Amino acid sequence: MAERKPGTDKPHYHGHRERLRRRFLEGGAEALADYELLELVLFAAMPRSDTKPLAKALIDRFGSFAAAIAAPVEAIAEVKGAGEAVATALKTVEAAAARLARAEAAAGPVFANLDKVVGYCRVAMGRARTEQFRILFLDTRNRLIRDEVQQTGTVNHTPVYPREVVKRALELGATAIVMVHNHPSGDPTPSRADIAMTKEVQAAAEALGIALHDHVIVTRADHASFRELGLL
User: Which domains occur in the chain, in start order?
Assistant: First the structure.
C-alpha cells in the first residue's frame, strides 16, 4: 500500500506529480531532467505507484530518455518493476515520435525536406540493434508514396534483392526511390558491400525507368548520403 502523510489520504507522491505536470506545461520538456520526463510517461502506466524510482532505474540502465524509449521490449522488461504496461508506454512514445517525424518528412518533396527525412529515419531505425533496409517510394514530384522496411538482417548485414526492390516500386507506381539502412556500429561510412549493392539496385531500377535518388546510411547520431559522397 502506498505511504500516506499524516492528515491526508493522498499518496505521498501525489503533490510531486502535480508539480511535475505544472513544470512541464509551463516550461516544456526543457524544464525537466530526462528521468522527470520519463516519470510523466509512466504516470498512466503506473497510476497508483511512485514512478520516480523506476524512471531513475531506466535512465541508469539505458543512459537517456531517448535510449530508454528506443530500448527493445525484452531489455525494458529486465529492469525491476518495468512490466508490460511500462514497456507499452515507452514504445508508444517511440512510435508517436516516429509518426510525427514521418509526417514532417512527407510534407513536401523529399529533397526539399532532406534533413527531416534523415531525422525521421534516424528516429525510426538509427538505434536498432540489427540492420534494417528501408525504401522511400516517390512519385513524379518526389513526394513520398510509401515508406517500407524491406529487409531486416544481422548486426552488420542485410540481404537486399534488387529485383524485389524494383518489383515493389512498380507495384506502387513509384518513379523514384531513396534507399535507407542503418549501421548499428555507429559508423555511417558505406562498406564495399553497400556500394556494390547500391550499384546493382541502381542498374535494375534505371532499366525500368525508376530513378535511385540516394542511398542514406543512418546511425543514432550521424548519417552518410551516397549522393553527397559522389557515389551516385
Answer: 14-98 (1.10.150), 107-225 (3.40.140.10)
